[in-house]
Amino acid sequence: MGLDKRESLVAITKLWIEKGCIACGLSESNCPEVFKVKHGKWVKGATVIEGVDYLGLEEKIKQAAEACPVEVIKYDEDDDLKNVPPPINRSMGDWD
Asked: What is the second-level CATH architecture of the domain 11-80?
C-alpha cells in the first residue's frame, strides 16, 4: 500500500533570500533551476530567478536551504494540496 501523492505534496508558495548571503554557490549547485549566484561589482550573492514554477523542485529547494551555511534561504509552504480531491478521469464514456 503506497501513500497517495497528495498526502506528501506540499507546495512552496514563496521563496526568498535574506540579507547575509556569502555567495558560496551552494544554492545554485543544489538547484540551478531556481537560484543564480551573482559576483558583480555592485551585487554579490544568490538571487531567486523570477518566474520559475517551484512545482517539482520542492525537495531541491529544501536541500539548498538546509545546505546554506548562513541560513538565509527562506520559503513558505502551503499544504492545502493535501486536501485537493483527485482529478476526475473524463476520458472514458459519455458524460452529460
From this structure: 2-Layer Sandwich (3.30)
